[in-house]
Amino acid sequence: MRYTPISGQLFAKNRKKLAAKLKPNAIAIVHSNDNMPISADATHPFVQHSDLYYLTGIDQEESILVMYPDCRDNQVRSFKEILFIKETNKEIAIWEGKKLTKEEAEERSGIRTVIWTSHFKEVLKPLLFEAEHIYLNTNENTRDIITVETRDDRFRKWCMEQFPLHNYQRLAPLMNQLRVVKEPEEVEALKEAISITDKAFRRVLNFVKSGVWEYEIEAEIYHEFIRNRSRRMAYQPIVGSGFNACVLHYIDNENQCKDGDMLLMDFGAEYANYCADLSRTIPVNGRFTERQKAVYNAVLRVQKAAVDLLVPGNNLIDLNREVGKLMESELIGLGLLDTTDVKNQNPAQPLYKKYFMHGTSHHLGIDVHDYGKRYQVFEPGMVLTCEPGIYIREEALGIRLENDILITEEGPVDLMKNIPVEVEEIEELMHR
Ligand code: GLY
Ligand code: MN
Ligand code: MN
């Protein structure tokens, strides 16, 4: 195991919270991810489904969770919670290495009834005939552009065909309610992901100079992640110099960094399935020009003011509106917008969007764009990014600064406050 497993108590607590939200006499069924195919017999590296992980801590394919809190158990074993895992044997161990034993799966998840996945349907059927409601999992992300079927999707088709007269319920809204507020163990995992990300950024500050290639920087980041027990990038990293920094989802990272250009990097480490999400923008040659510094400090001022808005009671819509106003006045200060034009602008299409075209924040957790709804009121325990940017295509200059913030009763806690961001600090570290 590359990461230190999170205590099974977290996952037991998560299931208890879900059980409390289910209707009476209901069963919930959640599947792991597939091993995603490439072609021939090749697969992508396995990444667990965030819901299955959240409820079980199991990081293995072909795993299924069945929760039936109102199940009337027989004397022999409890079916209130069942974890199905892929059977392991000597042959599998020779080819694939170690898979979880039933004892390990019990320890990891806190679930006492662990059964091989090959017995899933025969165990499930009699339980379903007792239950009235069936909760199934669907992807309710508003930006969902996924075209492949998940195991949850395939199971849903089978289940609804086999058991057409049950009451079917959506699991996704409940998972949203639970996952949006983080438990302390989750915040700890996020902090570790952030600490690894911090190390990688400092390594990059040492490495970057005129003439390096964007992919060389990506390699430095990856090197630091892996040696610190992260298994992967939390998402495809963006390493874009010059004009590339203005391409919001630039991930080719294939150009040479030129003297005088700024370099925008957006990357984060995964740790124990939790994602860090950092953006920093630095001068390739280690010194900001006056113009670069002016734009950079405008973004930094907006970021600092926006962090202060990440407090209980606020929400994403109002946050974006406020940040839009801050951005507007900074863009006027930079000579990019005209005061009169702003006064006369169509409020539905504010002019600042020409230079700042994305939202300020998103929830962060096991998914980098984690569960959380647009109008959901901020509560203590939520973790959001704060990532304003100014992208001036005509100047081939793009700057984004992104920190990860924990909302608390006492105010926002910047989990990335130790990661260098001030102009003087960046210049100093790049010239050591
Ligand atoms: N790295 C993805 C994002 O910042 O939303
Ligand atoms: Mn982000
Ligand atoms: Mn990011």
Would you write up a description of this structure?
With 432 residues, the chain is α+β, with helices and mostly antiparallel strands. The chain has 2 domains: 8-179, Creatinase/prolidase N-terminal domain (Creatine Amidinohydrolase, Chain A, domain 1); 184-430, Creatine Amidinohydrolase (Alpha-Beta Complex), CATH 3.90.230. It has 13 helices and 16 strands. β9 and β10 form a beta hairpin. α10 (290-307) packs antiparallel against α11 (316-333). It starts with 7 loop residues before the first helix and ends with a helix. The model has no long low-confidence stretch (mean pLDDT 96). The structure holds glycine and manganese (II) ion (2 copies).
Which characteristics define this entry?
432 residues, alpha+beta, Creatine Amidinohydrolase, Chain A, domain 1, Creatine Amidinohydrolase, 2 domains, six-stranded mixed beta sheet, three-stranded antiparallel beta sheet, globular, binds glycine, binds manganese (II) ion, metal-binding, metalloaminopeptidase activity, Xaa-Pro aminopeptidase, manganese, EC 3.4.11.9
Provide a compact summary of the structure.
This protein folds into 2 domains: 8-179, Creatine Amidinohydrolase, Chain A, domain 1; 184-430, Creatinase/methionine aminopeptidase superfamily (Creatine Amidinohydrolase, Alpha-Beta Complex). The chain is 36% helix and 15% strand. It has helices at 8-21, 50-56, 90-96, 102-109, 120-130, 151-162, 172-179, 184-207, 214-227, 290-307, 316-333, 339-343, 423-430, and strands at residues 26-31, 64-67, 81-85, 113-116, 133-136, 167-170, 238-241, 262-267, 270-271, 274-275, 278-283, 383-386, 389-392, 397-400, 403-406, 413-414.
